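TA notes, week 10

Several of you asked for a full example with nothing omitted. So below is the full record: structure tokens for the whole chain, then the designed sequence directly under it. When grading your own attempts, check the secondary structure regions first.
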């Protein structure tokens, strides 16, 4: 996927956030089934959500999958803490926030760092 240069960072961020929501929701479906004693019917939307996650990561404009996945890690961590707060009603503490900020900074360095032509 080719993204227009001025919008590439914002488009990539949107794709990463969408992927994170899809991955977290898919994994949470399995968590709900196995840890919260929910119905096995939770697995169907969970698997669909995980497939959406995998598809979205292929939309990142990167020459190498490993680099796209590494940059995704920081966004995933921050999104997981948002899930913790918004869905599970547990407010992240300052150490969660500091750790996530470090990871997001690292993801930005990986994603936006200059590469030799």
């Amino acid at each position: 996927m080719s993204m227009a240069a001025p919008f590439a960072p914002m488009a990539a961020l949107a794709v990463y956030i969408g992927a994170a929501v899809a991955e977290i929701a898919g994994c949470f479906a399995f968590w709900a089934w196995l840890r919260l004693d929910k119905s096995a019917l939770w697995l169907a939307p969970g698997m669909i959500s995980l497939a959406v996650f995998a598809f979205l990561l292929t939309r990142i404009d990167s020459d190498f999958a490993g680099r796209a996945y590494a940059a995704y890690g920081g966004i995933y961590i921050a999104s997981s803490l948002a899930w913790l707060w918004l869905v599970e009603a547990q407010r992240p503490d300052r150490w969660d926030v500091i750790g996530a900020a470090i990871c997001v900074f690292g993801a930005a360095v990986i994603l936006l760092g200059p590469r030799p032509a």
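The chain has four helices and no strands. Use that as a sanity check on your answer.
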